[in-house]
Structure formats: C-alpha cells, structure tokens
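User: structure tokens for this one?
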Amino acid sequence: MIALLQEEETMRNSTLKNLILVVSIISILVLLYFLSHINKPYGQSSMLQNLIKQSQPTNDEKDKPNYTSNPVEPTVPKPTEPTKQTEPEPEPEPLQPTKPTELLEPNSADNDSKESEEQNENLNNLYDNYLILVNKSNPISKGYNPPDLIQPKIPFNFSGDSPKKLMRLKAAQAIEKLFAKAKEENITLIAQSGYRSYQTQEAIFTYNQKRYGFEEANKVSAVAGQSEHQTGLAMDVSDPSLTPDPLVVAFGETKSGKWLAANAAHFGFIIRYPKGKEEITKYQYEPWHIRYVGVEPAKAIMENNLTLEEYLENINSNKN
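Assistant:
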C-alpha cells in the first residue's frame, strides 16, 4: 500500500515538472517573439505600423494646416521705447453756430479781408508818427505790426536771423549812420534787441513776473502792449566788453555809454529812460535803450534834459 502511494506521488511530481517545463518553454518562446519584433527597423510592429498608417493624413489632408502636431508659440511683441512726453495740446474751441447758407451775405470772406486790411491801415496811420508815445498809460494795439521793418547793417551780439534785429526803415537807416560815426571815433557799440511783437513781449514779462513778482518786473520790463519795442523804433545797444549781460546801468559810465548819450540826438535818437526821470517814465534808468523820434525832436529833448512825455506835453501846451 505504501509502495503504491509512493509511486503515485512520484508520477505527480514528474507530471508537475513536465508542466513547469512546458510553461517555461512557452514563456521563453513568447519572450523571444516580442524581442525579435522589437528589434525590427523603427521599432514598430506590424500592428503598430497599421495603426500609424491609419492615423497618417491623406494627400488632401496634408494641404490643410496642422494646428496640433507642432504648436507654435505666440509671438510676443518687443517692448518699444517710451516716447517723449509733450505738453498737452489745447482743446479746440467749440464751433460757433453759423447762419444757414442761404442767409449768408455774399462775398463775406472778401468783406472780412477788406475790413482787416482797413484796420491794419488805420493802425499804421495811427502809429506812423515817429513821436508816438507808448508807455504804461498809452498802450499800443495788440494787432499792430510795423509795415516797413528791415534789418540795419550793424553788429549784433548774436548770430542768425531774428525779429529782434529789425527796425522801421527810417530808424534802421539812422542807426546805421550812428554806428558808422561811433566806429570813426573808435567807439565800440553793439546792438542787442530791436523789434518785439506783442506776443514776444508778453512772454518776456511773464518770465520776469515769475522771477521777481509783478511790481519789480514792471520796473525793468513792460507789460505786453506797453513796450516801445513793438513800434520798431527802439533798439537796446551796449558795449561788448560788458559781459555776460551788457544791458546794465554801468554802461552809462563807460566811454561808449557817454558817447552815445552825447551823440544819439544827431541821428534822431534819445535815451528814452534817463536818470532822475523814473517818476515820469515809470521805468528805471536805462542808458542802453535808445528811441528814434527824428533829429529835431531828439535835439530838443536831449539838450533840455526832457523825457518824451515832457516834450509832448510841452507841445500840447503850446498848441492850447
């Protein structure tokens, strides 16, 4: 009985070993199969190749853009340099309502042009007098521009073209003769500032007001419309040796300043704001500021130590 049992146990062990051997051989064959396919070119099995072929686009589809296979990163714009800040432009004035077209007067533009020309002509006639008085009590019109401005052939303390080099024709001719005479007598003069428009004078006074305050600024510079420079009959002159600012009271004590005061009248000019007359002129002494009035009036003013205000007052008194 025991021998029979041992024989059955031996058979079972033999069968199990055979089964394990068969399984091992099958496993090795399967492994070799997969290894042999993995080592094929491109590492793709026939099944995988079929799948890949099915996923590849047809010829028609190749022409279509591919939005998924190669995503393109969005282009980021390069930062630009900041632009320079500029002052804000003034807002445009609101448009004024106009009359209906059928009610407009004929040739209204021509009429406006003619009126403007007539106004300018009237202003020119009003200020054509070389004795015109312009001061704090007698302002000149904002719209006045001298009609005959030219640049005299005299030396200036700056180069280039500028309205400051201009004077009215007769005054320009006279100052050329004055500078020529000074040169003959070895006197060195230099011009600095002639004509100024209303707008230029406005800017100058605004600057001085911010710097000194209105009261002090009004002693050394004029409010726009109260400056003789707008007439084109005035010029600031000095000695080039006075630097950095040649327009100083000390000019009156120089050789050039004394010569100018003694000889300006022979050419029709006066020292417009003389020393000791500040209460009348309302401006400080300015030995550099000369004003053209004509030869005879200039001689009468300078020889009698008068201001233009006093001279004109005497003329009016004699008329009455």
